[in-house]
Structure formats: C-alpha cells, structure tokens
Amino acid sequence: MWILANALPEMLNWRHHFNWHYLLWAGQLGFFNWSQQGEKNPLWGVIGCAVIALTSLLAWIYSVRRGRAISDTPTSNIASAAQGYAEIKGIADNKADNIVVGKSGLPSVWFRCTSYRKGRNGWELDEHVTSDSTFSITDGSGHSCLVDPEGAEIVTNNQQTWYTVDYKYVEENLFPGEQLYVLGNFSTLSSNSGQHELKADVSHLLAEWKRDQPWLLERFDKNKDGKIDLQEWEAARQEAYRQVQQKTQAFQRQPDIHLITRPKNGLPFLISNFPEHKLRRHSMVWAWGHLVIFFAGLTGLFWFGVKGGFWLSG
Predict the structure, then answer these.
(1) pLDDT at position 15, please?
(2) Are 161 and 169 spatial neighbours (Cβ–Cβ below 8 Å)?
(3) What is the pLDDT of residues 90-107, one digit of tens each?
C-alpha cells in the first residue's frame, strides 16, 4: 500500500526525464513476456525470472548507494571544499563562453536532444545529441567552479517538445541562472601547485631558440662572428630565464581553478536543477520499486523452478 500511495505518484512525477530506470523496466518487461514460455518449458521461466531478479538487485544497490551519497555528503563552499568527493550548490553562470545552444535555439549551459522520425510503426529514434562543454557555477561565497558534465547523470525539469512534418524533437536543458546541485569529484588546480618548474621551462625555451639558428644569431650574436660563444649563450640563458619568470609570476597571480568531474571510484556523479531533498527522495523511491520487482522475480524463479523440478523438495 505504501508503494501505491507514495512511490507510484513519485515515479510518475519523474516520467518525463531521460531515466535509465525506465529503460531497465522496459527490458525486464521483455524478459517477463519471454518467461511466459515457461508455461510450456519451465527452463525459460527460470532464466527470464533470474535475469529480472538479478538486474533489479543491481539497480536497487545503485539506487540505495546514490541516495546515501546524496544524504551523507555535506554541502561545501567552493572556496573551502576538500579535494575529493564533494557536494556543491551554485548558480549556473550566464557568461558567453558558458552558453551552448541545442536544436531548440534556447541558450543553455547543457542540453540533451533526441529526435524521432515518423515511421510505419510510430516514432522511431533518429538522433541523440548531448552537449559535453564544461560550464561554471558560482556559490554564495562568490567563487566559481567548472563542471565537466561528461559521464554525469543529469536530471532536469526543463523539457521542450516540438514537431515538424516528419520529426519529433525532445530537448532537456539546464539554463544559466538556475540553482544547480552537483555531486562529484572536486579538485583544485592551484597556481602554486608546481606545474611551472622554472628550470625545466627555461631549458625548453632555450631548446626552441636553438632550433631557429638565424633568429638566435640575429638576437644574441653581438660580435657578428656567425656563432654563439659562451658569453653570448649566457646572455641568451639570462633572457630566457627573465621571460619564463615573467610568465610564471603572471600565472601565479591568477586565481585557483576549481573543477568537478566524474569520480574514478564509481561513486555517483549527479547534476540537477532539483533540490537535494527531492533527489534523495527520488533515489529511495526507485530503490523501493526495484526491490519489489526483485522479490517478484525471485518468486517467479522459485515457482518455475518447482514446476520444472529444478529445486529439491522436502
């Protein structure tokens, strides 16, 4: 009764979002229909129900893990977030280099557009395009963080649907100015983190100069004897050192760059314009749904197993 009163309405509220749960259930429905052959051959029923139970168990584990990650990860400010798995909330920036445009023509920071072609049996998938450009968000502290959406589960309530003569388009978006929730791997590229080793950069610059001998002679051959002596080479080295040091100092004056990407340890990577409590509820509701199907598959597995004499009795 709890599932009917609470979980089912919640699932219907999310029905318009591109959701792997529905794809899984569609596949399980196919296996369920296939398992009906178990009326004639119980082995087919055992196989079909086993697949349904196993996939539901894995989906339940993922949904619970996702819900716990949302619940257990505290929200951090961009400026003070620890390196590693973090939860960040911020406003999507509306800077020009932050904007991408899908088929709808709407300025977005991210979009996912699916087009369908009208066929004999209804709408058939034609193309699926997802933007992968990095965008930035800014929190209340005034600091910004880049978000790389590649590999993320993105949940949004912004959806446009329109039709042409033979096509149907469905586009989901995240818009600039929206409050976004991001859960992923947080890292900081610091201007003082040692990327610019002075000695190595000087050697690299000198090597480039040596490959351009005419320029090197024109610039440092003071006595015009057609070669670079030790004194002239020392002058070249000092000039290379000065240029590299100047660039390094300019780099060190730049603010740190914060970035959120997909975690390498398999933890959930989530981007959404839904508030945290709805995402947490969404995960746990789906976990209940997958658990119910798991036990249904387990029951079917037992029933077909007994019918086919696969399980030992008494």
Answers:
(1) 40
(2) yes
(3) 999 988 888 999 999 999
33: closest CA among 15, 12, 48, 53?
48
Neighbouring C-beta atoms of residue 7, cutoff 10 Å: 18
**Who wins on pLDDT, 228 or 185?**
185
Q: Helix 42-72 and helix 276-307: axis angle, to 10°?
A: 160
Strands 84-92 and 122-130: unpaired
pTM greater than the 0.90 cutoff: no
Q: Which helix (H) or strand (E) holds 132?
A: none
Give the span between the Cα atoms of 10 and 235, in whole angstroms: 73
Phi, psi of 311 (to 5 degrees): -100, 140
Identify the bridge partners of residue 147 per DSSP, sorted by sequence position: 135, 260
How far is the CA of 221 from the CAs of 94, 106, 188, 204, 216, in angstroms? 52, 59, 44, 20, 7
Q: Mean pLDDT throughout 253-274?
A: 86
Per domain, the residue ranges of the chain are: 2-190+256-307, 198-252
Residue 39 clears pLDDT 70, i.e. is over it = no
Range from 56-60, 161-165, 170-174, 189-193 carrying the lowest mean pLDDT = 189-193
Show Cβ contacts of residue 131 under 8 Å, excluding neighbours closer than 6 positions.
100, 102, 108, 110, 111, 112, 149
The CA distance from 232 to 210, in Å, is: 13
- How far CA 103 is from CA of 61, 118, 155, in Å, comes to 36, 18, 19
| Inter-residue contact 187 to 257 (CB < 8 Å) | no
242-252 per-position pLDDT tens digit: 888 777 766 65
Q: Which residues touch 286 (CB under 8 Å, ≥6 apart)?
A: 11, 21, 59, 63
pLDDT reported for residue 312: 52
Query: What's at 301, amino acid-wise?
Result: L
**Phi and psi at residue 284, in whole multiples of 5°?**
-70, -35
Half-sphere exposure of 120 (CA within 13 A, CB side): 0
